Amino acid sequence: MERPNHSHLIVFLFCLLVFMNRPGMARDGDTGYTSFQNLIYKAYIESRMSLWENTLAAMETEYRQHPGELLLYDILLAKYGLTGYYLGVNDNSAAREVLSSAQNYLDILESAGGWEAEAATFRAAFNGFRIGLRPWLGVRLGPQSQSLVNAAISQKPDYPHAWIEKGNIMYYAPAIFGGSKTKAIEYYQQALALMGQHLQNNHRWLYLSTLVSLATAYEETGQTDLAIQMLEKALEAEPGFVWVKDELLPELKAKQSYN
Q1: CB of 202 closer than 8 Å to CB of 31
Q2: Nearest by Cα to 246 from 36, 40, 46
Q3: At what angle do helices 204-220 and 34-45 cross, to 10 degrees?
Q4: What pLDDT is stored for residue 8 in this prediction?
Q5: 32 φ, ψ to 5°?
Q6: 28 has which bridge partners?
Q7: Residue 253: exposure state from Cβ atoms within 10 A (0-12, 13-18, ≥19)
Q8: Could you tell me if 39 and 17 are in contact, meaning their C-beta atoms sit under 8 angstroms apart?
Q9: CA–CA distances in Å: residue 173 to residues 133, 146, 169
């Protein structure tokens, strides 16, 4: 994936901000700032992290001018995805930077009423990122993350992101500490079922990401056919999903043929 500094994207996002600040610009009361959400989704399916980064910067600018909890949630979701990406490409320095700034936004969300489940889920996820950066923190932060996710699910059982993080905890935790990829599969399935009932616009990329996580868990447990099915399902939902279309699915099918 290419890195930022594309001037045409910056100009485009600046123009978008100007347009959004015009009187009468509709802001979706259920899903926040739809234009930003669509750009994040486009960045995800096209593997264009420069677009993701520039969109996030524009979202933060908008938030400073017009703070609101819906946009605050979307910023945290974007920082969550970006931190995960950086960790995945071993850019730990960038991951730490994004994670540090995300914490400031999380503190604000935690102080807002009515966002307890979402805030707990983000804190659990951020703990997981910190464990990825410093594995020795797992002894303390692992159980804390589990408690946070369980509290989030108790407060809001239909919140899919909480189930995703419960799955991530099970997937990444060593078996000696209660980790189980089989359990992870169950929780990813629950998250997908909830998103299937009502998929918020800002969760569209998260839905695709969870299908990939489920496929990975299937592969890790020797269920290659099911893993392929999940990747094919992702392409059915989004035929332009570059990462799956050009990398993950061909590689998994080749591996299946070889075996």
Answers
A1: yes
A2: 46
A3: 30
A4: 40
A5: 80, -140
A6: 32
A7: middle
A8: no
A9: 14, 10, 6
What residue has token string 């700034």? 101
Structure tokens at 34: 């739809």
Tell me which residue has tokens 């899919």: 160
162 contacts 190 by C-beta, under 8 angstroms: no
Q: Which two tokens stand for residue 37?
A: 């959400």
Cα–Cα distance between 223 and 166 in angstroms, integer? Answer: 21
Angle (nearest 5°) at CA 50 between 45 and 52: 55
Token duo for residue 83: 């931190």
Determine the pLDDT at residue 113: 87
Tens-digit pLDDT profile for residues 105-144: 999 999 998 999 999 999 999 999 999 999 999 889 999 9
Q: Which two tokens stand for residue 16?
A: 């978008």
State the Cα–Cα distance between residues 35 and 38, nearest whole angstrom: 5
Q: What span, in angstroms and rounded, lies between the C-alpha atoms of 152 and 142?
A: 15
27 pLDDT higher than 70: no
Helix (H, G, I), strand (E, B) or coil at 190: helix
Residue with tokens 């974007």: 78
On whether the CB atoms of residues 78 and 53 are closer than 8 A, the answer is no
